[in-house]
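Operator note (shift B, R.M.): manual run for Ionotropic receptor 5 requested after the automated queue skipped it. Running by hand, logging everything below so the morning shift can see what happened. Input copied straight from the record, untouched. If output looks odd, do not overwrite the archive copy; leave it for review.
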Amino acid sequence: MISVLLGVLIINACLPVSSGMDGTLLKFLVDASILFAPTRMTAFLCIDQNDALHLLRAMSNAHLSYDIRISNHNLDMRVSRENRHYVSFLLDLNCPEAITILRQANESALFVGPLKWLILQDLKDRKKQNDSYLDSVFGNLAIFPDSELVLAQRLDKNSTRLLSPYRPSPYHKLIIEEIGLWDLQNGVTLLNHDVSSRRRRNLANTPLKSCLVVTDPDTINHLTDYQDKHSDTITKTNYPWIMHLVRMMNATVTFSIANTWGYRSKNGSWSGMIGQLARGEIDIGGTATFFTAERIGVVQYISLYTPTRAKFIFRQPPLSFVSNVFTLPFRRSVWIAIGVFMILIFCLLHLTLKWEWFNTSAEERVRRHWSGNVYQPTMSDNLLILVGAVSQQGSSYEARAIPARIIILMLLVATLSLYASYTANIVALLQSTTDSITTLDDLLHSPLKIGVHDIVYNRYYFESFQDPIRKTIYEQKVAPKGRKSAWMNLEEGVSRLRQGLFAFHGELGSVYKIVQETFNEDEKCGFQEIDYLNVLDPLIAIQKESPYLEIIRIGALKIHENGLQTREIRRLYTKKPVCHKHASFVSVGLTECYAAFITLSYGTLIAFTIFILEIIWYKRGIVEDVVQPFDYVK
Ligand SMILES: *[C@@H]1O[C@H](CO)[C@@H](O)[C@H](O)[C@H]1NC(C)=O
Ligand SMILES: *[C@@H]1O[C@H](CO)[C@@H](O)[C@H](O)[C@H]1NC(C)=O
Ligand SMILES: *[C@@H]1O[C@H](CO)[C@@H](O)[C@H](O)[C@H]1NC(C)=O
Ligand SMILES: *[C@@H]1O[C@H](CO)[C@@H](O)[C@H](O)[C@H]1NC(C)=O
Ligand SMILES: *[C@@H]1O[C@H](CO)[C@@H](O)[C@H](O)[C@H]1NC(C)=O
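Run finished. Output pasted below as returned.
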């Protein structure tokens, strides 16, 4: 015997009326330790202290180390949750108090796995040999498929039969499995090395109860036909899985309907599906539920997840919305260079035009009357030439002298190339979007409006967050006091998403399904997601300490491995639409031209102010005589 049994052997030495310990029994107990992993064993044997010492000696001769305590009749049946894998019990059925001990163990729910039991029965007693005796002892106990209970029936002096009684469910009679044999020569021979929940997958039509969470009443009619995939997607995804699980166990299932997953109310009770699980009204939750800290210990999660992700979906706002696109085509240094260049041109033009005027004779000026250059060129002529060139308009003043013409030509060529690069850039910029919104904080401070899908879990989680950013988003944008709140249905949310400048919080699959159906091809581009709820993917939950835990766990793994999980997910969850980059015509609206309008209105304002100042100036007679025509000849 190589394996080492670590732990404590607590011997509850009952009245020493017993058969006592013979060598064969000791040998059996030593051999039977392979049925149990290293454990801490509590023994209820009616042996005296001498026999207890014999047992311990036998154990240590076989290199099995025990920690021994001999306690009195007080049975301490409490087992802490953490140690359950290391705990086993040993009971002699022939002891007078055996039945009482079994009842007590039943009350403390000690027959659930992974707690282990080894029960000794000596068949010397003839009337206890038949099956109806076992039925009367075990038939009413909560020994279900997960229990690891081994009954060792001593057939004759040298051989023992190993049985394992259990019931598939509370509705079934006791089933007695034969799991192996022990004899003096060969030791323990097991027929099957699987653990009990692997052997007992056939629950023989046990009626299980489950619960579906349904937020749209019509879902009941479309659980398997893949219609209306956007409503209660998770219920429709999980329903076939539950049916597979139930079929694997050869059980039947009935569903109740709940309208919420279930949350803890102030008085500590749970509502919805979780409430039904917590109260033991159903065996298995039919709809996956979020894995949250407060639900741990209330239900047992099975690792069969559904990738339901509710997030904020939005498109980044156009660039023109967050900054003035009209200044963006050139860098600041280029703008400064252009300014310096214009000032330079202005000065040079002023010099050359003056020079031209003074170099032209009076007759020449008369001849030029028709060409418009009748007055001495002023600063404003100069400015008009400049503005005309910059705005690609030309001007009425026509320079005649070669130096002035060279400068004007240079000005026109320079502004043409600037104009070409500016317009090329501005078209691209008007169509581009920012990438400024990447976190919840950005979203809070962005111009985007917010909408939230009105569904139970959103209602619950949005109200429950206490961190500053989420709380502010909720108070300012989702449910602002005195204004319209942001709760809306899916269709409305998606249609506002299409209009832009809007972030919608909804389940990605459902939103993308409606996007896929209603948006134009070029509108399906540029979606971004921000997580708000900060939860893991939902998992299937079952009753705590359910006798079917292991069977369901294995079934869930099989559903995952066979691809049945992926099958439903693929069919029901719409992926993010692929953007085909058909960059279509982008219409430029008022928002894009905002800066231009601002410039225009300031310009008008300044013009009016100057106009009024001129009137005042004129009324006061400050202006001297207006220059008379034809005074150029003087
Ligand atoms: C089986 O045991 C019960 C007592 O538990 C007894 O009444 C019955 O007669 C026995 N049946 C047979 C066939 O021995
Ligand atoms: C064992 O416990 C179950 C519930 O846990 C109860 O229904 C059953 O009656 C109990 N059996 C006995 C014999 O007390
Ligand atoms: C039990 O085994 C012992 C030792 O191997 C042997 O002497 C004895 O005859 C056996 N008894 C029976 C009833 O088989
Ligand atoms: C399911 O259980 C019933 C009732 O015990 C049994 O008749 C049937 O053969 C079982 N089916 C399978 C596939 O094991
Ligand atoms: C707890 O509160 C819920 C409603 O919030 C109510 O339905 C339930 O009866 C209450 N339970 C107890 C034990 O007071």
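Quick read of the result: Residues 326-430 form one domain. Residues 127, 130, 132-133, 136 surround 2-acetamido-2-deoxy-beta-D-glucopyranose (ligand 1) (CB under 6 Å).
Leaving this for review. - R.M.
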